[in-house]
Amino acid sequence: ARDFIGWKGNERNPAECMSRPTFGLDPNMKKYASIQALADQDSLHNQSLSLSILLGLGAMGKTVLLRLVCVFLGFWRLSLVKAEDPYLYYTWTVTYGTASPLGVPQQVILINGQFPGPKLDVVTNNNIVLNLFNKLDQPFLLTWNGIKQRKNSWQDGVMGTNCPIPPNSNFTYKFQPKDQIGGYTYFPSTLMHKAAGGFGALNVYARPRIPVPYPSPAGDFTLLIGDWYKTSHKALQQYLDSGRTLPFPDGVLINGQTQSSFSGDQGKTYMFRISNVGLSTSLNFKIQGHTLKLVEVEGSNTIQNTYDSLDVHVGQSVSVLVMLDQPPKDYYIVASTRFTKQILTATSVLHYTNSKTSVSGPVPVDATYRLHWSMQQARTFRWNLTSNAARPNPQGSYHYGKITTTRTIVLSNSAPIINGKQRYAVNRVSYINADTPLKLADYFNIPGVFSLNSIQGVPSDGPAFVATSVMPASLHDFIEVVFQNNENTMQSWHLDGYDFWVVGYGSGQWTQASRKGYNLVDALTRHTAQVYPNSWTTILVSLDNQGMWNLRSAIWERQYLGQQFYLRVYNPIQNLANEYGIPTNALLCGKAVGRHP
User: Cis omega (within 30 of 0) on the bond before 116?
Assistant: First the structure.
C-alpha cells in the first residue's frame, strides 16, 4: 500500500498523499475527489493530533499515526478507482448516402454506413465515450433522447448547450446513463437532419445484481417506427423557412424499411422495444393475433397490463413482452398512423421458426380517430410500486404525491403567423436559436444572448413574438407543469435532463379543480408526454438536476419553428456535487470564441 501511494519514509503526510493522481478518473471526478479528500484530510489530521495528545504518544506516536492515516487514504483511493463504472469507447462517422426506404432513391444520413444508425447496448452507469466525426456539408449534433445527463447538460447535444460540430470536424461525447434502465433513442438535433436519418436505438440494461420484474426473455428486438418523407431534408427545411407547413408524410418505416421480419420459437417469450422516431405522427403498434404485455416505459417498470395494440406518440418509447403462443405461421407486425384522415402503414413479419405458412389476408389496422380510447389507454399505464428500476430500492419508495409543489407552470402552444410566416410558440414566445449556446453564455457570463424574463410561466393575451426564451427555476424545486393544448392537433412534449410523473390527462381547459383527478399514487415517470387535441396533460417534476435543459415539442416541424424553450435549473452556490464543470474539449462558437474553459 505504501508503494502504491508513493509513501517514502517520513517525508509524506496525508496532504501529500492526497495530491497523488486519481487513477482513471475523468477530470470532473478528479476535481470532486480532490475536494472531498481535502476535507477528509483536515478531519483526519485533527483527529490524529487529538489522539496523540490524549494518549501521550509524543512526536513518535504522531508520526506512526500519520503513516497509518496515509496508508488508509491510499486504500480509500484505490477502492474509489476500483468502484468506477466500465468505459465503452465508440467512433462514429456521419456521412450522406443513398437508400430507398419507400422505393425511391433518396439522400439519407448514415452513421458508420448504417441507416438507421448503430444500436447502442449499454448497462446502467456505463461511461460512454463516443467520438463523432461529421462528414456532412452542414454542422451537426446528436442528442440522447431520455438520457438524463446527470449534472452534465454539457453533453446534451442540443443547440442551447453545445456548439454544433463543423463539417470535417469531430467532437467526443462523454456521458453516463446514471441510474437508468430502459429503451431510448438518439437522433440529430440540428436543422431538419432528423428527416434524413441519423437516428438509432440506445438500450440501457440493468446491472446483473439488480433484478428485473419478469423472466429473462428468449430474445430482444428493437423496432424504430416513424413517419417518413421522400423529399430531402434540405427541401423540407426550405418549406419551413419559406413560411409553409410540411405536407402529409409519404409513408411509415420500421427500422428504416417498409418490410422486415423477426423470428422466434413457438412457446417462448420475446422483448420488443418500440420507439417512435418520426417527425410528426402518432402511431399505433400491434402484432396480429398476439397480446402485448407492457413492462417498461422510458425507464419506468410498469404494472404488466396486456393490450391488443399500443399508441406510441412522437418521441416516446415502450417495451413489451410477447409470447409466441399461437399456431406456427407468420403474423403481421403493424405500425399505422393515428388521428390522420389517410392511414399509412408499415408492416414487418413475426416468423415462427417452425412456420410453413406465410402472412396472408388484410393487414390488421385499428380505426384512426380514437382519441378517447387513446387517452383512456394512457391512463392505464401505471408504475410498478414494488419493482426496482436501476436501483435496488422499490420505485414506490418515492412518494411523489405527498410532496408540496413549489410552483405551477402552465404552457399553452399556438401556431401564430409572425412577419408573414408560419411559426409555433409557447405562451406567445416563438423560440429562435442564438449564435452562442445558452449554456456557454451562462458559464462565461456573456451578456445579450438570452433573457430570463423572455417567457412567462402562464399564458397571456397579446401577439406572438420571437425570442431566445429561457425560464429560470431553482434547484430542488418540485413543480407542476400543465400543457394546455387549444389546437385541434396532437402534441408531444419532451424535457431533457429529467423524467417526470404524468399525473393527469383531461379534455378542454385545465383548472385548479382538475387536480382532483390526478393520479398521486402510481403514475409512471417518462420523458415525453402526449397532449390530445383541445385537451391538457399535467406532469410533476422534481428539479434535482442542475443545468440548461431543453423543453420542446417532439414534433420536429413545431420544434424547428419555435415551440420550445430552455429551463435554467440553477443554484448560485457552485458545487461539483450539483453540476460538473465545462468539459476541456468543449467546442466554442459565437461570442464564446477565444474564451478558455
Answer: yes
The pLDDT tens digits for 554-584 are: 999 999 999 999 999 999 988 899 999 999 9
The residues with which 482 forms a beta bridge, in sequence order, are 410, 538
Grid coordinates in use for 374? 387513446
Q: What grid cell was written down for 247?
A: 405536407
Model confidence band, residue 26 (pLDDT cutoffs 50, 70, 90) = very low
Q: Which three cell numbers stand for residue 101?
A: 426506404
Ordered DSSP codes for 489-530: S-EEEEETT--EEEEEEEES---GGGGGG---SSBPEESEEE
Task: Give the SS3 label for residue 550.
Answer: strand
Pull the grid cell for residue 479.
Answer: 413543480
Residue 263 near residue 353 (C-beta atoms within 8 A)? yes
CA distance linking residue 193 with residue 190, whole number of Å: 6
| Contact (Cβ atoms closer than 8 angstroms) between residue 70 and residue 40 | no
Distances (CA, A) of 464 to 425, 426, 461: 7, 9, 9
Q: What is the pTM (predicted TM-score) of this model?
A: 0.87
Distance of alpha carbon 29 from alpha carbon 381, whole angstroms: 38
Integer Cα distance of 54 and 36 in angstroms: 27
